[in-house]
Amino acid sequence: MRLTNLLGLRLDQHLLRPDPRKPEISAIMIGEEETKNRVPLMYPLSSRTAEILEIWLRDYRPLLVQPGNPYVFPGKGMGPMTRAGMRDAVKVVTRERIGVEINPHAFRHIAAEAFLQQPLGADVLPFLFALRRSVFPLHA
Q1: Which residue from 36, 40, 65, 130 could staple onto 74, CB 3.0 to 4.6 Å apart?
Q2: Closest C-alpha to 1, from 29, 24, 25
Q3: Closest CA to 82 of 2, 3, 1
Q4: What band does 92 get if pLDDT is binned at 50, 70 and 90?
Q5: What's the rounded mean pLDDT across residues 81-90?
Q6: DSSP string covering the chain, please?
C-alpha cells in the first residue's frame, strides 16, 4: 500500500467489517478514485493483522486523537498523520526492533521481493501492488 493511501485510511470508509455489530475487520478497501493508478485495491487481513489493527483502534488511537477525527492514523486536529510523521515513526520502530531504519516506501520493495520468492509470485505481484506493466520488470 502506498503511503498516501495508508495515511488516508478512514474509519468510516476503508475498513470492511462483515458484521457491523462486531469489531472484526476483514479487509481494507480503497476506491479507484483514491489510488495513483486508478485501480481499486482490496487488502484482505489475516486474523493476526486484524487483531493488531483492533488493538491500535481500541487502545492506542484514542490516546492520540481529537474526538471526531475520522482517520485510522490521526494527526493534529481533524487531519491524518503527516507523511513525515509516519515516515519517522516507522524508521524509529524498525531501528528499535530490528536494528535497521526502514522507510515506508522500502516496505513495498521488501514485500515485492518476498512475493517473488513464492510460487506464482511473479504472476500475482502486479495485481497485489497495482503495478503498471512498465514498472513490473523492475521487481522481476
Answers
A1: 65
A2: 29
A3: 3
A4: very high
A5: 94
A6: --HHHHHT-BTTTTEE-SSTTS----EEEE-GGGSTTS--EEEE--HHHHHHHHHIIIIIHHHH--TT--BSSB-STTSBPPHHHHHHHHHHHHHHHHSS---HHHHHHHHHHHHHTSTTHHHHHHHHTT--TTTGGGG-
Q: What is the dihedral of CA 9, 34, 2, 13, to 10 degrees?
A: 20
**What angle do the packed helices 104-116 and 121-128 form, to 10 degrees?**
150
Neighbours of 7 (CB within 10 A): 21
In the structure grid, which three cell numbers stand for residue 134, read together?
512498465
Instruction: Show the CA angle centred on residue 52, arms to residues 9 and 39, nearest 5°.
Output: 35
Measured in whole angstroms, the distance separating CA 86 from the mean position of its chain's CA atoms is 11
Q: For 5-27, how does the pLDDT look when each residue is reduced to its tens digit (9 = 90+)?
A: 999 999 999 999 888 787 789 99
pLDDT digits (tens, 9 = 90+) for 98-132: 999 998 888 877 877 776 776 655 566 565 555 44
The pairing of strands 15-16 and 27-30 is antiparallel
- The candidate with the shortest Cα–Cα distance to 46, out of 26, 18, 17, is 26
